[in-house]
C-alpha cells in the first residue's frame, strides 16, 4: 500500500511537470484485476474515456467506476399492486407515453447472459442506463456479458419487453439498482405480453430469494457526488497512465512466496504501474495546440530552444547563429540549430508547426547591432534582448511550463 501511494504521487508529479491538465480518477481494474486502481486521465474533448468529476471536492472517477448514491423518491402512500393493459409498449418511452406518467416512475429491465450462458436480469429506473462493469462485478464468476436470448428469458418466467422480478423463477440472478428500491407506486412489467403492474413498491413487492440490491447504473451529468453530494460534471479524457494494487492474485497463481521473520510462507503482495508514452504525447498535443501547430510544454518538447539563422547563406549570420547555439548549449539549454538554406518563412512556419517553446531569430540586426529576437511559441510574444542578456531572459521565459 505504501509503494502504491508513492507511485501514485510520482505519477501525479510526472504529469504535472509535463504541463498537463489531468485528473487521477478511480478506475475499474478490469481484466488485470486486483484491488484499488487509478487512471491518470488527461482531460480532452476528443478523449475515449468518460470521466465524472466533482468541482466541489477532489472526487473523480471513470464512468465505469463512479459510485452512485441511491436517489430517494418523494414519499407516497403505497397503492395496491394491480395489472393494467399496456398494448404495444415494449419500450420505456412508449410505456410512459401510453400511461401519461414520467419516465422516472417506470422500472426498466435489461437481460444479459454470461459467457457460460448464465442469465442475469438487471432492473433500473426507467431513465437510467446499466453500467455493465458494475453488473459484472455484482455477479460472482461473471466475466463477459451479451444480450440475452428470448428463449432464456421465457425459460425463467419472463416476457421480453414486459419484465419485472415479480414472478421470476427461483434461482435466477436478479440484480436491482439501489435507486429502484427507493421508488413508490412505480410501473413495472407483469411478465405477460402487453401487461404491466401499477402500484409497484419494490421494497414491498420484490421479494425474490437471492435478489441482489446494489449500484449498477451508469453515471450521468448532475448525479450527486458520492463524497460531498455536489452535482457531478461529465467530461472526456485520454488515459495516459494507470496504477493498480494487485494483492496476491498473481503471486498465488504462480506460487511466488516469501518467508516472514518466523519462517512462514506468504504470497507476495504485488502492484502494477504503467505510463503510456505515446498516449501522453498525444494527450499533450490535444491540450497544447493552435492553428499553426503544436505548443509543446517545456518538459516534453523535442527541444527547448530553436536557433534560426534567417539566411544561412550569409556567412556572418550563420556564424552568429552557431555562436548563440553554442552559448545556449553551454548553459544546458536543450537547443536545436536550424541552419537549413531555406527561406526564413519556411523555417519559421516549421518552428510553429513543431512547437519548440522558444525561438531565437538570428538575422542582420543580431550580427550588426547585437539585437537578439526571442519569440515565445505558446503566447506569440516577441522580445528583443541584447547579446549580453538574452541567455538570462530565455532561461526566465522557460520557467513557465
Describe this structure in words.
This protein has 401 residues and is α+β, with helices and mostly antiparallel strands. It is built from eleven helices and 23 strands. It has helices at 2-17, 92-99, 132-138, 150-155, 202-205, 249-254, 277-287, 315-330, 344-354, 364-369, 390-397, and strands at 22-26, 37-43, 49-53, 60-62, 82-85, 107-114, 119-125, 145-147, 173-177, 186-192, 195-200, 212-214, 233-247, 257-259, 265-267, 270-275, 289-290, 293-294, 305-309, 335-338, 358-362, 371-376, 382-386. Strands 1, 2, 3, 4, 13 and 16 form a six-stranded antiparallel β-sheet that branches. Strands 8-6-7-9-12 form a five-stranded mixed β-sheet. Strands 20-19-21-22-23 form a five-stranded mixed β-sheet, with helices on both faces. β10 (186-192) and β11 (195-200) form a beta hairpin. The radius of gyration is 31 Å and the shape is elongated. The chain starts with a helix and ends with a helix.
Amino acid at each position: 500500500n505504501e509503494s502504491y501511494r508513492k507511485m501514485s504521487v510520482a505519477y501525479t508529479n510526472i504529469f504535472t511537470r509535463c504541463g498537463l491538465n489531468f485528473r487521477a480518477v478511480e478506475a475499474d481494474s478490469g481484466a488485470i484485476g486486483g484491488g484499488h486502481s487509478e487512471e491518470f486521465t488527461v482531460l480532452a474533448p476528443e478523449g475515449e474515456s468518460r470521466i465524472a468529476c466533482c468541482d466541489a471536492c477532489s472526487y473523480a472517477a471513470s464512468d465505469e467506476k463512479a459510485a452512485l448514491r441511491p436517489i430517494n423518491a418523494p414519499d407516497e402512500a403505497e397503492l395496491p399492486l394491480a395489472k393494467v393493459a399496456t398494448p404495444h409498449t415494449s419500450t420505456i418511452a412508449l410505456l410512459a407515453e401510453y400511461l401519461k406518467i414520467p419516465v422516472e416512475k417506470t422500472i426498466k429491465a435489461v437481460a444479459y447472459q454470461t459467457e457460460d450462458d448464465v442469465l442475469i436480469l438487471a432492473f433500473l429506473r426507467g431513465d437510467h442506463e446499466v453500467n455493465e462493469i458494475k453488473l459484472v462485478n455484482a455477479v460472482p464468476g461473471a466475466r463477459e456479458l451479451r444480450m440475452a436470448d428470448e428463449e432464456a428469458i421465457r425459460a425463467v418466467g419472463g416476457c421480453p419487453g414486459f419484465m419485472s422480478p415479480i414472478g421470476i423463477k427461483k434461482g435466477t440472478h436478479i440484480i436491482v439498482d439501489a435507486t429502484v428500491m427507493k421508488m413508490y407506486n412505480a410501473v413495472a412489467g407483469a411478465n405477460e405480453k402487453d401487461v404491466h403492474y401499477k402500484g409497484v413498491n419494490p421494497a414491498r413487492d420484490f421479494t425474490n430469494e437471492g435478489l441482489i440490491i446494489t449500484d449498477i447504473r451508469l453515471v450521468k451529468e448532475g448525479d450527486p457526488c458520492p463524497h460531498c453530494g455536489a452535482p457531478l460534471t461529465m467530461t472526456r479524457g485520454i488515459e495516459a497512465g494507470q496504477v493498480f494494487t494487485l494483492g496476491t492474485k498473481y503471486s498465488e497463481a504462480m506460487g511466488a512466496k516469501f518467508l516472514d521473520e518466523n519462517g512462514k510462507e506468504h504470497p507476495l503482495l504485488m502492484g502494477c504501474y504503467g505510463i503510456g508514452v505515446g498516449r501522453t504525447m498525444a494527450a499533450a498535443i490535444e491540450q497544447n495546440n493552435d492553428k499553426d501547430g503544436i505548443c509543446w510544454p517545456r518538459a516534453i518538447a523535442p527541444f527547448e530552444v530553436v536557433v534560426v539563422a534567417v539566411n544561412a547563406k550569409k556567412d556572418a549570420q550563420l556564424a552568429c547563429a552557431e555562436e548563440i547555439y553554442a552559448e545556449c548549449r553551454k548553459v544546458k539549454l536543450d537547443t536545436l540549430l536550424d541552419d537549413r538554406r531555406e527561406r526564413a518563412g519556411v523555417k519559421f512556419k516549421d518552428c510553429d508547426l513543431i512547437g519548440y517553446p522558444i525561438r531565437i531569430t538570428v538575422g542582420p540586426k543580431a550580427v550588426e547591432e547585437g539585437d537578439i529576437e526571442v519569440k515565445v511559441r505558446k503566447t506569440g510574444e516577441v522580445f528583443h534582448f541584447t547579446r549580453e542578456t538574452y541567455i538570462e531572459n530565455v532561461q526566465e521565459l522557460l520557467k513557465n511550463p
